[in-house]
Amino acid sequence: MRALLFIVPLALTIYAFIDCLNTSEEDTKHLPKIAWVFIILLFWIVGPVVWLVAGKARRNAATGTGTGTGPSSWQRGRQQQWVAPDDNPDFLKSLKDDKDARKAEAEAESRKAEAEEELKRRNGGTGPDDKTPPTS
Q1: How many CB atoms lie within 10 A of CB 123?
Q2: Residue 28 backbone phi and psi in degrees, to 5
Q3: Which of 10, 51, 101, 130 would suit a FRET pair with 66, their CA atoms being 20 to 30 Å apart?
Q4: Cα 108 to Cα 104, 128, 132, distances in angstroms
Q5: 3-state SS of 42-105?
Q6: CA 37 to chain centre
Q7: What is the pLDDT of residues 87-112, one digit of tens each?
Q8: Measured distance CA(24)–CA(43) in Å, rounded
Q9: Residue 93 burial by CB count (10 A; 0-12/13-18/19+): exposed, middle or buried?
């Protein structure tokens, strides 16, 4: 029973500390974030309780709104739902670009091989890379 008197406040302090660190500066209320960190760590039982009650702008889980000023500019600008890769036009475009690049590379290799063969044919096939023995 004595252990609970130590473990419960310690767990509350650790939870509040991590919650404070993970909260953006825009969502902290009344004080700067660094001040909340010091309050949580210095005032062992009271600090975490005050943080949980008054330190953070809480959001309503159903509507996503809260007591704060609204979503930050980063949250407003980002896409709210994940998009599967096969539904993502940017991803599909990158695949097409990769495929086009590989196709162009293969065509360049083919043209290079044809040019080398044409060069060998014009020179009579007696180049240093020619594997056939010379004819007499």
Answers
A1: 10
A2: -80, 145
A3: 10
A4: 6, 23, 26
A5: HCCCHHHHHHHHHHECCECCCCCCECCCCCCHHHHHCCCCCCCHHHCHHHHHHHHHHHHHHHHH
A6: 27
A7: 778 878 888 888 888 898 999 999 99
A8: 22
A9: exposed
Quick one: pLDDT band at residue 62, thresholds 50, 70, 90?
A: low
At 107, the amino acid letter reads E
User: CB under 8 Å to 133, separation ≥6 — which residues?
Assistant: none
User: What single-letter amino acid sits at 136?
Assistant: S
The residue with tokens 């949980």 is 52
Counting other chains too, the contacts that 95-103 makes at CB distance below 8 Å and 24 or more residues apart are none
pTM, full prediction: 0.44
Structure tokens at 107: 């065509």
- As a whole number of angstroms, the distance between CA 125 and CA 110 comes to 19
Tracing tokens 């500066």 back to the chain, one arrives at 25
